[in-house]
Amino acid sequence: MKKQRITDVAREAGVTPATVSMVINNKPNISQETKEKVWAVIKKLGYYPNFIAKGLATNKTNTIAVIIPDLSSLFALEVLRGIRDRITEDDSIYYNIILFDMISYYKSRSLKEIFQRIIGERRADGLIIIGHTIEEEALEILQENELPFILVATNSSKYDCIYSNDRLGAYKAVEYLLKKGYKKIGIIYNKLVEDRLKGYLEVLKNNDIPINEKYIIEVPSMDLNSGLKLGEKLVEEGFEFDSLFVAANDLTAIGIMKVLLKNGYRIPEDIAIIGYDDIPAAELIVPSLTTIKQPLQELGKEALISIIDKIEGRNKERINLILKPNLIERETA
Fold first, then answer.
1. CA-wise closest residue to 166 among 122, 199, 191
2. How much is the pTM?
3. Strand-pair category, 326-328 with 290-293
4. What's the CATH number where 309 sits?
5. Is 131 among the domain residues?
């Protein structure tokens, strides 16, 4: 099969090569009908724009770097799935994705050094940064070099960001437990998600329920191992609360559940548990985990479109997009 050219696409679609180029590059003033017709022909002929040549001419890579905290992070993988699905759904997106796993890179490099490398080697036209608390100095490097980036699952008053309303999610979880008749509600949180603690405190205050400091437990990390360790501590020392909002995440909640169930506790009869995120494992564990569903895939989809709009100059305003979480009722509460 011969290599297709832009002129072949134009001829088949009944438009000029200039119009095909404008469609590929998402230029304005092209009707939706023309766009759909051109993309249909591109797909039919198997035409692939020469982005290497284009990159040399425009100083662009047509690549987006995605920074994730850890390849084992189910949270980050769900956001990545949203990015992948958005690319799959939209034939007009011609960007490659490269991943930087921070667990691997932090062994020898700081985040600042990684950003400098991406800039120096012209590795990407923009960055999507998932779930990080990042030092200001590193982000300033990106700004100084005019490299667009967006923070995902991080609320920032200064930088482009997209996140789920954690305070609202926590409020929904605790309010649900109160309506179920629970009064002694504990919370497990991490400093990275302090807005969830604020939501917890807010709903208790609004319902005239005294704050018990013993019911507020901070964990150093948000993972299965952290949940297992805390579960063992709860079994060893005992606890007074009748329900537990694991605001850290579902993995921490699952770790706690495994230990409690192993030691004869019944869930939710002895203690009700609500997690956070709604990762796939939440539905599979027995009993299935009631949780707050973050729109993780939607975060990925919106982040991708937002960073492309920034790269291509269609949006020069600061982005602060907030998505709403929902309660998923299952068996643990």
1. 199
2. 0.75
3. antiparallel
4. 3.40.50.2300
5. yes
